[in-house]
Design a protein that fits this description.
The complex is a heterodimer of chains A (109) and B (143).
Chain A lengths: L6 E4 L3 E2 L4 E8 L21 E8 L2 E8 L8 E7 L4 E9 L4 E10 L1
Parallel strand pairs in A: 2-8
Antiparallel strand pairs in A: 1-3, 3-6, 4-5, 4-7, 7-8
Chain B lengths: L4 H16 L13 H9 L4 E2 L4 E3 L3 E4 L3 E6 L3 E8 L6 E7 L3 E10 L5 E9 L4 E12 L5
Parallel strand pairs in B: 1-9, 3-9
Antiparallel strand pairs in B: 2-4, 4-7, 5-6, 5-8, 8-9
The chains are: A mainly beta (109), B alpha+beta (143).
Chain lengths: 109, 143
Amino acid sequence: MAKGVKPRIKVPKQASAGEAITIKTLISHKMETGLRKDADGNKIPQSIINRFTCDFNGSNVVDFDMKAGISVNPYFQFEAVVPESGEFKFTWYDDDGSVYEKTKKITVS
Amino acid sequence: MKISRRKVVVLGTSAVSASLLPLNLLAQSDGQSAEDIIKEFTGGANIGSGDIMLTTPEIAENGNTVPISVESKKATAIKILALGNPGPDVVTFKFGPLSATRSASTRIRLRKTQDVLAIAKLEDGSFIQDIQKVKVTIGGCGG
């Protein structure tokens, strides 16, 4: 597992049914492109987060495929509709095989 | 065959313009070219224009992190390409049944001043695109 990886998510705590809510996510990650060279002139191998998904109660919201062109500490903002109260599940997939997960609850009135 | 001076001039200019043409799309890329990536995404279908909006800054001072956002109301997937990057493929946004407006924002790396292209796949299977030029003051791909 890469060091210092910390996901941060902003989801409103409450919403009304069918309302479009804005979700912001950020995960700290160095997103090494594979193009940089170290002091000895050797290429530093690519190490990025290559996929991000967001699901709500088992149903998909978004699924993003990422390449090296995404900046350090990948940030995403998108919108979701919530039909009922439940839990958002956020998943990041790292090149080294590790998977970072975080969940957020939301109450729908 | 006798070649007049006029013919020589015409031949010369057409040769120069032909050699300049591929520069637009075939920016130097280590892996797949932008054309290959587009073909893979669209399956060779025609790309029209329409309801897709790509928002980028006109001038990006730091190419390491350029904020972009894209919106297309009927899209099921949107692909972002940075045509002047060593790897033009940047990100593919796929929208599931619970996504509200088909919009997304993120931050991308740009090596130099270049065009950023967004291609959306719509619910009816057709494709539309939007292109924006971004001026980059300091490039952001390392290397």
